[in-house]
Amino acid sequence: MATSRSTIDFLLDQLCALEDLSSRRMFGEYCIYLSGKPIGFVCNDEFYLKITAAGRQLAPDAAEGFPYPGARPHLLIPADSWEDRHWLIPLLEATERALPPPKPRKKDHFKQ
User: Fold this and answer.
1) Which burial class, exposed, middle or buried, applies to 11 when counting CB atoms under 10 A from its CB (0-12, 13-18, 19+)?
2) Which residues contact 111 (CB under 8 A, 6 or more apart)?
3) Interior CA angle at 21 toward 17 and 24, to 5°?
4) CA-CA distance, 53 to 30, in Å (whole number)?
5) DSSP H helical segments within 31-110, as ranges?
6) Comparing C-alpha atoms, which of 81, 85, 82 is closest to residue 18?
7) Is residue 75 within 8 Å of 55, Cβ to Cβ?
8) How far is it, in rounded angstroms, from Cα 112 to Cα 105?
9) Residues 21-70: pLDDT tens digits?
10) Residue 112 has pLDDT above 60, yes or no
11) CA 10/CA 40 separation, integer angstroms
């Protein structure tokens, strides 16, 4: 089951205070970016956040889940926590700061 547009719209609205937040649709699901770094996924209407020590400290009781088959475990952020902006925004910011910068894309050698 793909994530509904209303789910991603609601989550992004809750996080609108984050200036450099974006999402990208991928195979019916969404990747969430903060400051150009992929920090999580919304899959099957559930929000999965990459696990970092900083994020785990702010969400010590969060369950782990897999956004898609073959993925590494992520923190599963329950939908009823999405409305708590005062908790969710610092969690995303801490996760983003703890992640390395994205790797530069390789040049396409076939383009001319």
Assistant:
1) buried
2) none
3) 145
4) 24
5) 53-58, 85-98
6) 85
7) yes
8) 17
9) 999 998 889 999 999 999 999 999 999 999 999 999 999 999 999 999 99
10) no
11) 16
